[in-house]
Specification:
The protein is of the alpha/beta class. It folds into four domains: 4-13 and 36-325, 7-stranded beta/alpha barrel (Alpha-Beta Barrel), CATH 3.20.110; 346-497, no CATH class; 501-623, no CATH class; 628-803, no CATH class. The protein is built from 29 helices and 20 strands. Helix 1 packs parallel to helix 3 (88-104). The two termini are 32 Å apart.
């Protein structure tokens, strides 16, 4: 047996990007062609590491492996919640990998917990530290169905109080950067050795003594190897990574040694393209090497308990050489892309949020004591509702904590108080301070959480909180003149985005002109119950009136609204919403709107909307972003079609001229190229989205583009074809013996070889391997028994495997 062990830890995390009012991520154009950054990074990294490729010398796939089952890892709880909802297959693969790792590593799972909301624990108060650690443990138990052995600290930011809470709650270890060790000693009798000049030996675990006889094991990762992997070119190949890890052992040390590294998990595929494959190959090499053994921290602790003690340097982290300055002051740490900027905004932003939290704490406690026995215990247990927001679960929570049976209004107050506290925690998410600029999306996100806190506090308390908060926020100055300061950013982006039940009703009313709602429907974290709906159409114009009850699934607050909405074509939409006040007034409003509409007297309809809904008019700008984008696409469809026709009339007669200019080695006029770009890319995208792909038509369009030197919209075309093929593959997985589906999928993959750009076929390859494992042997047996359709299936399937570069064994 070897006494040399290797452990690779990946910290997989994304900041929460959900709209604070909708509990959903809205479309992020910067992630194009994906919907948002979570979706993009999942495709590039999280899914890739769940089924990474082992290739042969000819770049054929020999095997799909789960990297998660062989490394140590943690996932941010808010990221896992998103994955559970949006990418359940990847989420399930992560949970399965933890189970597999328990079999591999002596019963110790490789997943570790993470403090829940990724706030910097040394900068938090004691109560928030406890809740963050407690929620991280409970969330882990909910998902992985076991108790965590260790916990990842956000940014590895550490202090003794946080370690004490972790130990008190049963955690055994954490992972730190080597520079966070202050001193060590080899035994309780030995002298403490200062590490300021030498650094700690990362090849062994250490223990730290805490109050009450508690201890915590500390693993200080290998700094040079971790930095080389994250910031240099160590992931250029699996061989390079494996060799560097093996080179970190000391040949003159006969004691057990653990070479372990820790980086952001996104390094493997997102930051470093194909980094997951380099990791997979390195792990395979290490598995085959008899001189070392892969392990995880839990298994290593059981085999080799710490023999030496260490003391930490408090208020330090892995990503700020100034301790934790990056999250509360202009310490000098930044992304490095804007040399003229400063980060002086960090301090007033932190102060504004600290003051808001501290002013709310006694207000929360005082009001909550009217309803529950222990307000802060209720906050800790609120995670039960966050994990499962169902009425029966909320009922059980309130029964458990309430002093008496609560009236409906009191239930709403309790849930709003708890939700206010949740957002008080979210507004300290570390990413809000990590980057360079106050107006960056991560910082605006934490200010948005503060906006939600202020809105809820305004519903619950009479105290003036917003004014002092904005005064302090105004001291945070942007580096960009157009954004001014934090207060201006709040007024520009946060206040207009605040959502009430009435705004949800307006969204329902406007969108009802473009889609038919059932009697009961879900709108993000709201429920809409249709009580009445009437509509008329005249040419391109539409009008509707209705009554809808909107209920928040978060707070259970509910209001009954009536509405009227007029669409005069294009983007010209006007909507009025008010609280429902009875059938008589509703019928009066409906008649006042419908009568002039039937006469095509639209100015009078607008006048009546203003009269019946004073101060409560909305437009298409009031729609939530994804629905707004969808409706605008619908509205713009005819306009775009007309524009394409105009471009086609310019482009097509001049194609021979453009080909001649190419042969003559002359430049094409920019106007003709622009027209051709619109026509060709539009035609290609349409063809790639058809149920049956016409390869010859696409080939002709590509040839035409090449001859006329028309640039292709590669990002859009690649994504369109990839999505088409992935949907076909999913259909094939659902009906694996359907020869027609297999034939269409084969035809689509063959098309990829005729394109002048690459198409990412990872998901198609994954599904092909799934079907191969389930069906290939059975279909081969049928074919060998004389079943002709099975023989044809087998032939097509093997051809598909060749095209997908999968070597079937």
């Amino acid at each position: 047996m070897t006494n040399r062990y290797v452990c690779i830890h990946g910290h997989f995390y994304q900041p929460p990007r959900e709209n604070a009012w909708l509990e959903a991520i809205e479309i992020q154009d910067s992630a194009y062609p994906y919907h948002d950054w979570n979706e993009r990074i999942t495709a590039e990294c999280y899914a890739a590491n769940a089924a990474s490729r082992i290739l042969d010398a000819q770049q054929h796939i020999l095997e799909l492996v789960s990297n998660y089952s062989k490394i140590s890892f943690n996932f941010g709880p808010t990221l896992l919640a998103w994955m559970e909802d949006r990418t359940p297959d990847v989420y399930g693969a992560i949970l399965t990998a933890d189970q597999q790792s328990q079999e591999r590593f002596g019963g110790h799972g490789s997943a570790t917990a993470q403090a829940f909301g990724h706030l910097i624990l040394p900068l938090a108060n004691s109560r928030d530290k406890y809740t963050q650690i407690y929620w991280g443990i409970r969330d882990f138990e909910h998902r992985f169905k076991r108790q965590p052995e260790g916990m990842w600290l956000p940014e590895t930011a550490v202090d003794l109080e946080s370690l004490q809470i972790m130990a008190d709650l049963g955690l055994r270890f954490t992972i730190l950067a080597p520079h966070q060790a202050g001193s060590f000693r080899g035994s309780p009798e030995a002298e403490w050795q200062d590490l300021s000049n030498s650094g700690i030996d990362p090849r062994r675990p250490y223990t730290i003594e805490l109050a009450g006889g508690k201890q915590m094991a500390l693993f200080f990762y290998d700094g040079p190897v971790s930095r080389a992997l994250a910031f240099e070119n160590l992931l250029r190949s699996g061989e390079s990574l494996a060799a560097r890890l093996l080179g970190a052992f000391r040949d003159d040390d006969g004691d057990p040694q653990l070479v372990h590294i820790a980086t952001d998990g996104e390094t493997y595929g997102h930051h470093k393209s194909n980094g997951d494959m380099a990791l997979a190959y390195a792990l395979q090499m290490l598995e085959k090497d008899p001189s070392v053994q892969l392990t995880n921290y839990g298994e290593y602790l059981e085999k080799f308990p710490p023999q030496q003690e260490a003391r930490i340097i408090e208020r330090t982290s892995w990503s700020c050489i100034h301790g934790v300055g990056r999250w509360h002051e202009d310490c000098g740490c930044n992304s490095g892309g804007h040399p003229g900027w400063n980060q002086q905004w960090r301090a007033p932003l932190r102060q504004a949020l600290d003051e808001l939290r501290d002013r709310l704490a006694p207000l929360y406690e005082s009001k909550m004591k009217r309803f529950v026995s222990d307000p802060w215990r209720a906050r800790d247990d609120y995670l039960d509702i966050i994990l499962r927001r169902k009425p029966d679960n909320i009922d059980r929570f309130l029964e458990r904590h309430s002093l008496h049976e609560l009236a409906i209004a009191d239930r709403v107050s309790v849930l709003k108080l708890l939700e206010m506290q949740r957002h008080c925690l979210l507004m300290f998410t570390s990413c809000g301070w990590f980057f360079d600029e106050l107006s960056g999306i991560e910082t605006v996100q934490v200010i948005q959480y503060a906006g939600r806190v202020l809105q809820l506090a305004g519903d619950l308390f009479e105290e003036e909180l917003e004014g002092p908060f904005l005064e302090r926020l105004a001291q945070a100055k942007s580096n960009l003149r157009e954004h001014g300061d934090g207060r201006q950013i709040f007024e520009k982006w946060i206040r207009p985005g605040m959502i009430t039940l009435q705004v949800v009703a307006a969204h329902y009313a406007i969108s009802s002109l473009f889609e038919e709602y059932p009697e009961k429907s879900e709108l993000f974290c709201f429920t809409a119950e249709k009580e009445a709906y009437h509509n008329l159409e005249a040419g391109r114009s539409k009008i509707a009136t209705g009554r809808v009850i909107i209920t928040s699934n978060i707070s259970q607050e509910s209001l009954d609204f009536s509405f009227g909405v007029l669409h005069m074509g294009d983007h010209n939409i006007t909507c009025g919403v008010r609280v429902y006040t009875g059938g008589g007034r509703y019928r009066e409003m409906q008649k006042a709107l419908f009568d002039p509409f039937e006469r095509a007297d639209f100015p009078e309809v607008l006048n009546q909307l203003s009269r019946h809904f004073p101060g409560s008019l909305y437009s298409i700008k009031s729609l939530f972003r994804d629905e707004q984008r969808s409706i605008l696409d619908t509205i713009l469809h005819a306009t775009i079609e007309n524009a394409i026709s105009v471009y086609r009339a310019i482009y097509e007669p001049n194609v021979p001229l453009m080909r001649f200019l190419k042969d003559a080695n002359s430049l094409n006029p920019r106007a003709l190229v622009a027209a051709g770009e619109m026509v060709i890319n539009n035609a290609l995208q349409r063809e790639m989205e058809q149920p049956e792909i016409d390869q010859e038509k696409i080939a002709n369009l590509l040839d035409e583009a090449a001859q006329a030197r028309i640039p292709l919209d590669v990002a859009s075309l690649e994504f369109a074809l990839r999505t088409h093929l992935e949907n076909l593959a999913k259909e094939f997985r659902r009906l694996p013996e359907e020869l027609a589906i297999l034939s269409r999928l084969l035809s689509g993959v063959e098309l990829v070889y005729r394109l002048p750009f690459d198409v990412h076929l990872r998901k198609v390859q994954d599904i092909f391997c799934e079907v191969a494992a389930l069906k290939r042997d059975a279909m081969r047996a049928k074919a060998e028994a004389g079943d002709k359709p099975a023989g044809e299936w087998r032939r097509f399937f093997e051809m598909l495997g060749e095209k997908l570069l999968v070597k079937l064994r």
